[in-house]
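Re: the request from the purification team.
They wanted to know what the chain is likely to look like in 3D before they choose a buffer screen. I agreed to run a prediction and write the result into the notebook, where they can find it.
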Amino acid sequence: MRRVLIAVLVAVTAVLALSVTAATASGADDEPVVRMARPTWDTGWFQAEVYGLLLERLGYRVDGPVTMSNPEFYAAVAAGEVDLWVSGWFPLHDSHIEGVDSVEVVGTQVDDGALQGYFIDAATAGAHGITNLGDLADPAVAGLFDHDGDGLADLVGCEVGWSCAATIDHHLSAYGLTGTVQQVQGDYSPLISETIARYRDGRPVLYYTWTPNWTIGEMVPGRDAVWLEVPFPSLPPGQASALDRTAIAGIAGCAHDPCQTGWPPNDIRAVANSAFLDANPAVRTLLEQAAIPLADISAQNIRMVQHGGDPLDIRHHAAEWIQANLAVVTRWIETADPDAVALEGSTTDDAEVTGTLTVAARTLPPFVIYQNRAYSGFEVELVRLLGASLGMDVEIHAVDTVAKQIDDITRGVAQVGLGGVAITESREDVVDFSLPVLDSGLTILTNTEESRGIGDRIVSFLDAVASSDLPWLLAVFGVAVLIAAHMIWWLERRHNPDFAVPYRKGIWDSFYWSVVTMSTVGYGDKVARGTRGRALALIWIALGTLVFASFTAAIASSLAVSELRSEISGPADLPGRRVATVSHSAGEAYLPSVGVGPVIVERVDDAYGLLAEGKVEAIVYDAPVLQFHAAREGAGEVATIGADFQRVQYGLMISEDDPELRERVDIALLDLMESGVYGRLHDAWFGAYG
C-alpha cells in the first residue's frame, strides 16, 4: 500500500512540476521578472514590499524577495544571481561595492537620515554619570552591564554578517574596550526584545540600534534611553572618508550638541546589477525617483512589532502606504513607464507571500535545540531539508507552548509547527499533521544507583517502613508495654521496694521492668517477688519472644522492600510510585491507565529537577527526549529503563486551511525517506542511544 501511495504522490509531483514549467515558459516572454532580495533585519522589509508593489505596476513579476545577509547579497548581485534590493546603507556598505563594476547604487530612498549608535538606559546613565562609550573602560562601570557573569559588559550588537558588526568590533578595539566590553551577537530581534524586557525590570541595558527601527519607539532617546558618544571619531578603513560626518547635530538624548555618535548618517539606497538596469530602463527610472519618509518607515516598524508581524500584514502596510501617497506614487510610475497599469485598482488582499517557510518551534531537545543563539536539532535539520526540497527559505521563531504554536498557525503567523509534537486526536481537531516524522514511544527515566546518596536511601527506607506493618507493630508494642507496666506495679507495689509508691514514681520503674523483661534482656536490677508478679513475668517473657520476633521480621521486610522499591525495571513497577510526567503529553494519558496518579509538570525540565531532588522516583515521557537527556546532561546521574512502550508518533503541524502545503510537505518527506537522507539524519540524532 505504501509503495502505491508513493507512486501516486510522485506522479502528482511530476504533473505539478510539468505544469509549473509550462506556465513559466508561457509567461517568460510576456512578463519580465525582477529577482529581489531583502536584508536579514525585518525593519527593512516594509520598503522591500513597497518597491515590489511598484515594480508589479510596471508590469514585472517580482521573484522573492529572498532574505540575504549583506555579504550574500552583494556577492549575488555582482554575479547577476539577483537583480536588486532597496536596503543599501551608505557609507556603511561602501566596502561591499568598491571596485565592483557590475553593481550600481541608484536613487535615494532615505536621504542622510538613517542614524545608528550606542545607547544605555537613562536611569543608569543618570545614577552613574555615564555619557560616553569610553566610560566603560572602567571595570566597575562595565560591570553594571555584565549579565552573564563573565566580567565583561554585554553590548547587544549586530548579527554576524551585518556591516555594523565589524564597525562595533573596530570601535571596541580603537577605544581600548576589548578587555571590558563584548559584543553580544545572535538573532537581533530576540536579543533586543530581551534587552527591553530587562529594562522594564529595572536593570541596566547597553545596546546598539538604528533608525528607522521600532526600538526607538519603545525606548525613546531623551526619555527612556540616552545616546553614548564615542571618545573620538574612528571608522574601519572602508568608511574612513566619512570620519568628518560622525558628529551629528540636533539629536535628542545626547549629552552634547552636536553628538559624537561615532557613526556617520547613512543614506538608504537601492542597489542593483548594472546589466539588469541597462536592460530595464523603466526600473532604473523608478528607483531614481522613489523615496519613503523616515517617519513613515519608523511608524510602520512600530506597528509591525506591536500588532503582529505576519508577512501579509507587512505587505498590507505597504499597500496602505501606496494608497495614502497615491498622487506622488502615480507620478513615479508614469514617469518610469507611461503605459504602466493604473494604481487606483491596486490591491493586495489576495496576495500570498511565497518563498519562505515560517516555522514556530518549541524548544525540546533533541527535536529543537536553541544554543548560542542558533537553532539545531533533529526536526530543525529536517525542516531545513524540506525547505530546500520545496525551494523555500526557512525562518524559525521560538514559542513556549504547543497552544502558542497552534495559535500562530491558525492566525497565519507560522505555516509549520515543530518541536516533538505528538500526533493526538485532540490536536488533529484544530490543525493538520504531516506524515509522521518519527515513530517512537514512552520510556522511564530514573536515577542511577550511583547517584543515590545516603539521604535518598534513608528516605527510601522511611517510605518503605511507612508502607509496611511495622508502624502497627510499634503501636501494639507500646500499648502492651504500658499494660504490663501497670499490672506489675499493681501486683508488687505493697511488698516490693523495686516498684515504688506513689504511682508517679513507681510507674516509671514498672515501665522500665516491662521493656527489659519483654526484650528478654532481664538485667536483674528489678525483679518480681510475689507469686502473682512472678507468674506475670513468665508470661511476659514468653510474649516478648514472640513480639520481638515479629518486630525483627518487620524491620527485615522493610529493608528488603526499600531495596526492591529502588529498582524499577518497567511499567509494571510503576504503580505505588511517585512518577512525574508533562501535562498534555502521551505520558499523562497513559499513567492513569496503569493505576498511577502522576505528578504533573508543565515542562520536562521541571520533572528533571523533581527527580534530582528525590521528590519523584521516575519520569515517564517521550523516549527520544528522555534518552537524549540521559545521554547528555544527565549522563551518569540518570538512565532510561527497559524498552519503549505505548507508541507515540510525531509530526509537523500545518494549518487545516493549507492542504496544498501539507501535500507538498508530505511528498518532500517521502522523497527524503526514499532517498536515504532521512535515514542518515535519524541515525545521526538517535542512533547512538535510540
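For the purification team: DSSP finds 26 helices and 24 strands in the chain.
Please add any questions underneath this entry.
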